[in-house]
Prior knowledge:
Elements: H1 2-37, E1 39-42, E2 45-49, H2 53-60, H3 64-99, H4 104-112, H5 119-129, H6 136-143, H7 160-172, H8 174-185, H9 189-197, H10 202-230, H11 234-240, H12 257-268, H13 273-306
Antiparallel strand pairs: 1-2
Amino acid sequence: MVQAVMRWRKIIWFLLPAFLLYTIFMVYPLVSALADSLWRWEGTARRDFAGTGNFSSLFDTFPLNHQLWPAFWHTMVFFAGTMVVQNTFGLLVAVLLFELPVARRFLRTVYTVPYLIGGLVVGYLWSLLLSPVFGPVNALLHGVGLDSLARPWLGDPATALPVVVLVNAWQYVGFPVLLFGAALAGLPPEYSEAARVDGAGAWHRFRKVTLPLLLPSIGVVSILTFIGSMNTFELVYSLEGAQGNQPTGPGGATDVLGLIFYRVAFQEGGVNAIGQSSALAVLLFLVTFGIAVIANRIVRRREAVLS
Length: 307
């Protein structure tokens, strides 16, 4: 009995610092935002109880009612593009590094370094590279005779969002490389060896053996990618500005929910900025959390089938 009590005390002491940090930096802001979203504010002064009024104002107050749904759609396109480019390329790199161990550690470091750099820094660097005036990307196209392809990449509505997706994928491709690499290292080698003995080539072994076993890991990476995409802000902000475009830019073609929240909180929210921005933050959390929970259940069921 005494040993059990001492054991629980040790567990509590080890968990207490993490629990306090999680409560202060995660739980408290969420609860505070929910409380703030239920009141009407004048500046920083809380006034009367608004109930769901702040939530309904997101959909019937100009210009929010014209910006929210396009921003949600752009966020979904951002997620889909990131899934296709970043995670597909990350899986390809992880498989190649697993099959070809030469310089594996060096190449993993190369792919991971951009992931460790802040989004504001990455966005600023790429805005210089893609500048239509002095950027090396357009200069290279002019130099090789492809003048027709040179364009204001971040200022053209047709290319602004795809370019943001590609820059984001370039920055974070190291994340799926690491996760898929760890998953590949944990797969039982017997299945692949049996397929090799049966005469299956590398592509068939990957498609019939490796890929099905990686589906749980792919599901986890997809969920984390979705959460990150729903919260994207700093990269888009540094590339396109707070309005989702530069002064000569694509007219809101890169508006995402993070930019809408920033504008409501600090630029366009008016006297009730705290109430409306808190309502938007709560709504964004509920959508992200709800979809992530559903996707996680699907992934767990898939894991149960494989096991």
